[in-house]
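Whether sequence alone determines local backbone shape is best considered at the level of individual chains. We regard such an encoding as a compact summary of how the chain folds. The sequence in question and its structure tokens are set out directly beneath this paragraph.
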Amino acid sequence: MQPVALVYAALMVVSSLCCVCGNVVLLLVVLLNKELHTETWALTLSFCLSDLALGLSTIPFGAYNSLLRPQGYPSDGHLCQGSAFLYLLLQLASIHSLTWATIDKFTEICFALSYTTICTAKRTRVVLVLVWLYGLINAALPLLGFGSYTYSSTRFLCGPSFQPDYRGFSMLFIVVGIIAPILIMCSMYAYIVYIARKQVQRGTFVCNDQHCFYVPANNYFRSSIVMVATVVCLLVCWLPYITTCFYETFSGHDPPAAASAIATWLVLFTSTLNPWINSMTQTRYRAALRKSLNKIRQLLQRPLKNSHPQSTAIQLEIVSHHHITKPSLWSDNSKPGSPETRSMSEVTM
């Protein structure tokens, strides 16, 4: 077995586990905390579910092929065509949902006063319908004859063919489906960092009903670092894949096996990074995660707490049996309003 296949399989297995864990955590945090259910929270849910599906289907499939089926599958078989359709659909849905979530964040920061009128629940639903419809149409084009799905022995996956014969579909997929969303996200993050730098230079004050206070420059610095890191991750994960696709499309030759395998893994690895760099870096998501962890901790500690009252009740019963010496407190002559009855009721409450 080739060393490239072994390394590829190991990376895919680790990526699949991390992808599933990260997206399940994000999914639970979003569903269990109603304060995150904003007008546009469905965008986060969309790319989370897309990445989770990739982590459960395509990524393990690539690891299995590299270890046990390096010779691949017939390109015209139903398994190859179906897995390629699912891979392309989920990949496009993930990156375009993430792009619209970035647009939502950009609008919230740069157009704060009119954000609630621009980003509404109705418009979010329309955007999601268009995103998934776009993914379905693009993923169905090779099945209809525009483009082709083939098994790649260097990527260990069935996916779109980037041979010169299918240059039209390749350009549509690469330029519109991948490059355009990445450029939009990078441009928006760069502009947000620029605005943050300007605010630090002139100073920023936030006012409430009682007083105004200065916002420390460290807040903007941390936010800028997160956004720059997000842009770097996008470029590092996608540029090798885009380069190999262009090389294969215009040269007609397969790229080196190691380069193609690493480029494919980096693209799929974005499904692992997305829930952390695009959601968990935000303060409200981290606060919701801590809140959820506290709830889980309380639920786990509750059975232990419930065991103590039972033992305490048994001890009180034994003590009362041996030490109560005032039968008048328990006699029928005791009235509900008597001091004795009141004192006992206060003790038992």
Remarks:
- The CA atoms of residues 153 and 205 lie 58 Å apart.
